[in-house]
Specification:
With about 325 residues, this protein is α+β, with helices and mostly antiparallel strands. It has helices spanning about 15-25, 70-80, 85-100, 130-135, 140-145, 225-235, 255-260, 275-285, 300-305, 310-330; strands at about 1-5, 35, 50-55, 60-65, 70, 105, 115-125, 150-160, 170-175, 180, 185-190, 200, 220, 240, 265-270.
């Protein structure tokens, strides 16, 4: 155990564990484990969406409700609306005051914490409940087959044993469990629409829909989820569609540049909420990709479910038509 009692003059001397324990008001010491809490930036957050995790010996965070993420300094910048130098000064002042008041800060010994991984799963046949669920979003079996979405009867998660933890297995079964697969049969995501806290389980990083790209359409849409890909696919418009693992995972510039050589127009349609609007704006700022906002509901699939495919298409069509028209003018 290491005790830190001296006043520091550089923010690099402040333990990242202290930054997160102090500013996120954690009730536990950080010793190498992952922690998930309610968003510190989105006060409407009802399900913990801010992850605090170790990387390369220091802690970092990712807020999936609004896209914020980074180091402890980034956390303080966001919490108090400070510049980088201001945040560094605040951290040093607060840490020095903490040490003077408390007497010291004890660093917990970092331990290896094993994470759960999906190690086994089993596909099952489609049933009436599956059919009713997907058709409520206007999504039929041809689209599900095209994008390799299959129902699962169960999946198993395992956590390897460590010096402090025993090996553990979890078997999850029930209705409304779906697996998203790649063309080689690899499972990359589990979707559980009826389980609010664990709706998505990412197995592998993958830009959804890339295996289905034929480069046969003049336009590409970047959507927010597989369900939006499937719903949009049913419209029959001259677009191919992809979606990152999440709205807050930026597709790399190299991939965007490669797509520019294949398509006349690339657009973004993300969720109509604060995180989605913010993420779409970043694509516009960083890549110059225009975004379309569907204001009917949170996303395309929800709009289809509540208002129907025809009304959703009618809402989107003028915006897309204008973007395509502008592209043709400049070709």
């Amino acid at each position: 155990m290491l005790s830190t009692k001296h006043i520091i003059s550089s923010v690099s001397d402040v333990p990242s564990t202290w930054m997160f324990e102090y500013y996120a008001k954690l009730g536990e010491k950080l010793t190498g484990q992952d922690v998930k809490i309610l968003s510190l930036f989105n006060h409407k957050d009802k399900i913990p969406s801010l992850s605090i995790y170790p990387k390369d010996g220091r802690y970092r965070f990712k807020d999936f409700s609004n896209g914020n993420g980074g180091s402890g300094i980034d956390l303080v910048m966001g919490l108090f609306t400070l510049t980088y130098p201001q945040a560094c000064n605040k951290i040093m002042e607060d840490y020095n005051e903490f040490v003077l008041t408390k007497g010291d800060y004890t660093l917990g010994e970092f331990k290896v914490h094993s994470r759960y991984k999906i190690t086994e799963f089993c596909k099952r046949t489609w049933n009436t409940f599956d059919r009713e669920y997907w058709l409520s979003y206007g999504i039929g079996s041809p689209a599900l087959e095209k994008y390799w979405v299959y129902p699962l009867s169960f999946y198993k998660m395992e956590r390897e044993a460590t010096e402090t933890e025993e090996k553990k297995e979890l078997n999850i079964s029930g209705p409304f469990i779906y697996g998203y697969f790649r063309s080689n049969g690899e499972l990359y995501k589990v979707y559980q629409p009826k389980i609010r806290e664990k709706k998505f389980l990412n197995v592998k990083d993958y830009i959804q829909g890339t295996d289905q790209l034929k480069y046969a359409c003049p336009n590409l849409m970047i959507g927010s989820s597989m369900k939006d890909i499937l719903a949009f696919n049913e419209f029959g418009w001259p677009f191919e569609v992809v979606a990152p693992g999440s709205e807050n995972t930026m597709i790399k510039k190299e991939m965007i540049d490669a797509w520019r050589h294949k398509y006349n127009l690339i657009i973004v349609i993300f969720d109509n909420d604060e995180p989605g609007i913010k993420a779409a704006a970043k694509y516009t700022k960083d890549y110059g990709i225009p975004s379309v906002h569907l204001k009917m509901e949170k996303d395309i699939s929800d709009s289809v479910q509540l208002h129907g495919a025809e009304a959703t298409m009618k809402e989107l069509h003028p915006q897309l038509k204008e973007l395509i028209k502008n592209v043709r003018v400049h070709l």
